[in-house]
Amino acid sequence: MYHSIGIVGGGIVGLAIAYKLQKQYPNSKVTLFEKEPQLGKHQSGRNSGVLHCGLYYEPGSLKAKLAVSGIKQMTAFCRDHEIPHEICGKVVVASDAREEGFLNNLYARGKANGLSELKYLTKEELAIREPFVKAHKALLVPEEGIVDYKAVMQQLSSLILESNGSIFLNTEIRKVEERNDGIVVKSKNGETWQFDLLVNCAGLYSDKVFSTFTGEKRPLRIIPFRGEYMMLKPEAEKLVNHLIYPVPDPEYPFLGIHFTRMMDGRKEVGPNAVFAFKREGYTNRDFSLNETLDAITYKGFGNFIFKNFSFSMGELNSSLFVKAFLKKARKLVPDISENDFEKGSAGVRAQAMDAKGKLIMDFNVVRKGKQVHVLNAPSPGATASLAIADYIIEEYIK
């Protein structure tokens, strides 16, 4: 086993890998670097806090395997460390006969992935669970839940430090040099460290970090999509009890606008999926010329827009106009009105894309010399983070 391992990126996947390494190999020294003044500031700290159990993912895919294992590990971790979480279940709604076919396919996929107790709800059962939902057909997924991922990351960081690991905040790694006796890394501030192995968990910048560290061309491109949320005002929270999702349309990427109850009791609506003009751009005013050009000049991005033009315009419309956002939400809960909304949070999804414009939906990890690069860890990356860590250690580090 390696005596010293460096990890670049203090989101939940980087923390999970550091935690698992220190736990399995207590004689090894693990050092984690985060460029921000706090851990999990971006994707990991801006998601909706849902525990995904493996309903959507292609049977046999890495996502499917790690989601099923991951939710079990995550809920056990939360129980052991008294982290707020709840297995409340969710309802997936088909709004018409066409979507009923998609819902039946989801049911079969969930069964293939090992989910238990999936159940189609009668109108009476749905009315008891979610009285304001309108559905042609509804599927209950009882194994899904909610969690406070910020509390998870705080606990992981505490356990890393207690196990002789180190965490450096405000430390951006800029240069890497591989030598026969190890790998030397240098921070933006000029500090240097030497390790036996380096792991890239840089999330939104994973592709750029890969190129910087290896000197090689990026095997994929991260395209940033901003997801914007609305919050239900307190007087409208009665419209939603737990988790309510639409059936995803296989012709378009992303899940669509849904309703989420959060651990603090607030109810969230969203997200849409809008191209972000900056990788860490959380409003439509955030802009980076270099990062915008990096995306729009990529052949794959042009192919994606060509194939998904109507979808892309619809998502942009829902970002610019509340009425368009409301229309998507009303598909599930018809009684909701514009007055029930107030501005919520936003996150940016690091969506990997190939040159043909195809979204890379499965997890993607590569090893180059003394470096391991986690190039793609989209949803359910947070839920499955502990299982992802096991997989990476077993297949790429051990």
UniProtKB/TrEMBL annotation:
It comes from the Bacteria. Keywords: FAD, Flavoprotein, Oxidoreductase. The keyword Signal does not apply. GO terms for molecular function: (S)-2-hydroxyglutarate dehydrogenase activity. SUPFAM superfamilies: FAD/NAD(P)-binding domain (SSF51905). Gene3D superfamilies: D-Amino Acid Oxidase, subunit A, domain 2, FAD/NAD(P)-binding domain. The keyword Cell inner membrane does not apply. Pfam families: DAO. Transmembrane segments: none annotated. Its cofactor is FAD. Its EC number is 1.1.3.-. It is an enzyme of class 1 (oxidoreductase). Residues 5-394 form the FAD dependent oxidoreductase domain. Belongs to the L2HGDH family. This is L-2-hydroxyglutarate oxidase.
